[in-house]
């Protein structure tokens, strides 16, 4: 632990030296995925999966509920700061005009999206394939604003972050007999990873060369998962965690294959599973008080519209909790997760 902490300190010092001139380490940051990285694209959609109301955002800048499924910053917000950006990639659908504000990157993520397009359709969210279409529109705008040469260097030098798969399992597969009676979890993983490979190849074809993808978290440790599938136990649901580990192993193998297949591609898998598992199973060692219950409401099931200003029992100090709502980490946990992303992502900026 001490060596890891020392390494992180050294890397942060290196990054501080690099960005001291005020320039970010990369020209832009583009984000795709689900609620873990959505910063408000769902706000104006006809969906119940939203977070643009209190107490969401109560510890964010100006105590604003932006659409982030958190009390404060997401791990990707901290990542943007670590890369030297002074603002966060804006939610694409919330931009009133699209021009120079796209130059430093954009966030296309939509809560309840996944590698399986039908997952997004179930919740009236934006599928990854539709997020890619929005990115294509963004590229056309960039060409007009920056010119062909500058736009090309922005696109090839940018970092692309993808977070998906969790909703496919938690919000679709485990509750959908049309899926779980037809596919084993292993077969469903294979299906999702075929879609993942296609997405990466399509993103690569549009010019992306530095891509980071997060693994699944320990799904069986999410407060809502324990409540729904834990058989009255307060322990992580082993079956769900096994499915996550199996998917993650296949994700790593698929990513390695894509990197060999596509010239000049840097594709890094960010392990979210182990860092979050450590926070859940050893909270006090990491400065937390509670890891079974989330801060919002009872902390057992509430998320989105069930986590609201009238939710009874919402904690006063979210920094003591690993989870903000029953599916999503707190600002304090996200900051720790972002430090692990920083270490794993060094190769994307070198």
UniProtKB/TrEMBL annotation:
Keywords from the named record = Signal
Q: Among its keywords, does the record have Signal?
A: yes
Select a single GO molecular function from the record's annotations and give it: hydrolase activity, acting on ester bonds
Has keyword Cytoplasm?
A: no
Q: Which residues form the signal peptide?
A: 1-22
Which InterPro entries does this UniProt record tie to the protein? GDSL, GDSL_lipolytic_enzyme, SGNH_hydro_sf, SGNH_plant_lipase-like
Query: PANTHER family per the record?
Result: GDSL ESTERASE/LIPASE EXL3, GDSL-LIKE LIPASE_ACYLHYDROLASE FAMILY PROTEIN, EXPRESSED
Q: Which family does it belong to?
A: Belongs to the 'GDSL' lipolytic enzyme family.
Q: What is this protein called?
A: Putative triacylglycerol lipase
Question: Which organism is this entry from?
Answer: Lupinus albus
């Amino acid at each position: 632990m001490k060596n890891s902490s020392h390494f992180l300190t050294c890397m942060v010092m290196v990054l501080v030296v690099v960005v001291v001139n005020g320039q970010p380490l990369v020209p832009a940051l583009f984000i795709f995925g689900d609620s873990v990285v959505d910063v408000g694209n769902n706000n104006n959609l006809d969906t119940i999966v939203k977070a643009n109301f209190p107490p969401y955002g109560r510890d964010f800048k100006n105590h604003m509920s932006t659409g982030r499924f958190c009390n404060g910053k997401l791990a990707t917000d901290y990542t943007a700061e670590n890369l030297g950006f002074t603002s966060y990639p804006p939610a694409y659908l919330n931009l009133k005009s699209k021009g120079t504000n796209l130059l430093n990157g954009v966030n296309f993520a939509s809560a309840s999206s996944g590698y399986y397009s039908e997952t997004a359709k179930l919740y009236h969210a934006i599928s990854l394939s539709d997020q890619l279409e929005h990115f294509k529109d963004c590229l056309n705008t960039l060409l007009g604003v920056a010119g062909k040469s500058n736009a090309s260097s922005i696109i090839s030098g940018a970092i692309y972050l993808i977070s998906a798969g969790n909703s496919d399992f938690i919000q679709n597969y485990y509750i959908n007999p049309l899926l779980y009676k037809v596919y084993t979890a292993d077969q469903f993983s294979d299906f999702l990873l075929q879609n993942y490979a296609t997405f990466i190849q399509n993103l690569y074809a549009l010019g992306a060369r530095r891509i980071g993808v997060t693994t699944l978290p320990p799904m069986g440790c999410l407060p809502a998962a324990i409540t729904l599938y834990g058989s009255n136990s307060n322990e992580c649901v082993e079956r769900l965690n096994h499915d996550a580990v199996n998917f993650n192993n296949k994700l790593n193998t698929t990513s390695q294959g894509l990197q060999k297949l596509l010239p000049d591609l840097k594709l890094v898998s960010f392990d979210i599973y182990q860092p979050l598992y450590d926070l859940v199973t050893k909270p006090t060692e990491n400065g937390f008080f509670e890891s079974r219950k989330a801060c919002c409401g009872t902390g057992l099931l509430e998320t989105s519209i069930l986590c609201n200003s009238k939710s009874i029992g919402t904690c006063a100090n979210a920094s003591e909790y690993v989870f903000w709502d029953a599916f999503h980490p707190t600002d304090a946990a996200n900051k720790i997760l972002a430090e692990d992303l920083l270490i794993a992502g060094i190769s994307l900026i070198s």
